[in-house]
Amino acid sequence: MASLMLNGAHQNPNLISGIAPNGLNFHSKCLFQKGVLSHGNKLRVVRKNFTPKGSMSASSSSSSRPGSQPRFIQHKKEAFWFYRFLSIVYDHIINPGHWTEDMRDEALEPADLYNRNLRVVDVGGGTGFTTLGIVKHVDAKNVTILDQSPHQLAKAKQKEPLKECKIVEGDAEDLPFPTDYADRYVSAGSIEYWPDPQRGITEAYRVLRIGGLACVIGPVHPTFWLSRFFADVWMLFPKEEEYIEWFKKAGFKDVKLKRIGPKWYRGVRRHGLIMGCSVTGVKPLSGDSPLQLGPKVEDVKKPVNPFVFLYRFILGTIASTYFVLVPIYMWIKDKIVPRGMPI
């Protein structure tokens, strides 16, 4: 029964050319290149060394899914307490199923970190797992790890290669850095908790120097019905088109999207991925983003009803359990289904 529910229908592995989403200025044709979905005057969709399954069509709507969807952990206070407990086992339980070292290095490659003297901010850096990939190429003294969770940051402080990194508690939607501050902005596994992703990416634009590069690594939305249900109950799983739209609206140029995923998924994307893409963009002009936004969606200082908070937190945690089990399910299928056959 579980296999039947998770399998879903076989889906076309290719992105389909068609009418572009409104506001994205996509070209109507999709051309397969190697490894990157880039957006300038054309939409170029890329087939990686695996065959993507269940990926979103270029003709899919780019607008955000309705705010009425629960997303019980897409809220800073709920995410804070979620990681209060998850930080204890995060590196040992969560990362092996969703965010491996190979995936990390592949996702960071477009960030062009190959200069020891770059000034880098790692926003939502958590336990420092992604930062370990950054300091392979950049001196730790030039790297700042920012996160709202002191419990996650405490884990980062314990990692020897990160001892010289600056560690800051802060909000991804209101960064404590001056304008035109950094050469590189990296954020991995954080956007899904932002109440207003557009604001977070606009902040990424602000803190970068002219010519600086932002790299956001995050989830992708499922297409299989059961996975889609739990994704929308848990947190934000953006569509690929939404990432592109947020970057372009913030003012970034040369926006590119690279698909990533665990090797044992064999390119399957229908269940969504906690870490499913790496999106990059270049800041063309100094100063603030040309996009002007209103007040923040969430005021973390505002009192909340403790019973409502607990209810939302429990439901969000239950939904997250599904995505702990999915990579185990896919790993088992990878072991028992012969190579060359769809899983």
TrEMBL record:
Q: Where is this region: SAM motif II?
A: 165-178
Q: Where exactly are the transmembrane stretches of this chain?
A: 309-332
**PROSITE patterns, per the entry:** SAM_MPBQ_MSBQ_MT
Region (SAM motif I), start-end ranges: 120-129
An example Gene Ontology molecular-function term: 2-methyl-6-phytyl-1,4-benzoquinone methyltransferase activity
- The EC designation for this entry is 2.1.1.295
SUPFAM superfamilies (alphabetical): S-adenosyl-L-methionine-dependent methyltransferases (SSF53335)
So which domain of life are we looking at?
A: Eukaryota
Alphabetic keyword roster: Membrane, Methyltransferase, S-adenosyl-L-methionine, Transferase, Transmembrane, Transmembrane helix
Q: Fetch the InterPro entries from UniProt.
A: Methyltransf_11 (IPR013216), MPBQ/MSBQ_MT (IPR044649), SAM-dependent_MTases_sf (IPR029063), SAM_MPBQ_MSBQ_MT (IPR031164)
Q: Any idea where the MPBQ/MBSQ family SAM-binding methyltransferase profile domain is?
A: 71-280
Whether Hydrolase counts among this entry's keywords is no
Q: Which GO terms describe its biological process?
A: methylation
EC class (word): transferase
For the region SAM motif III, what residue ranges are annotated? Answer: 206-219
Q: Which family does it belong to?
A: Belongs to the class I-like SAM-binding methyltransferase superfamily. MPBQ/MBSQ MT family.
What is the protein name stated in its UniProt record? 2-methyl-6-phytyl-1,4-hydroquinone methyltransferase, chloroplastic isoform A
Q: What is the organism field in this record? A: Glycine soja (Wild soybean)
Taxonomic classification? Eukaryota, Viridiplantae, Streptophyta, Embryophyta, Tracheophyta
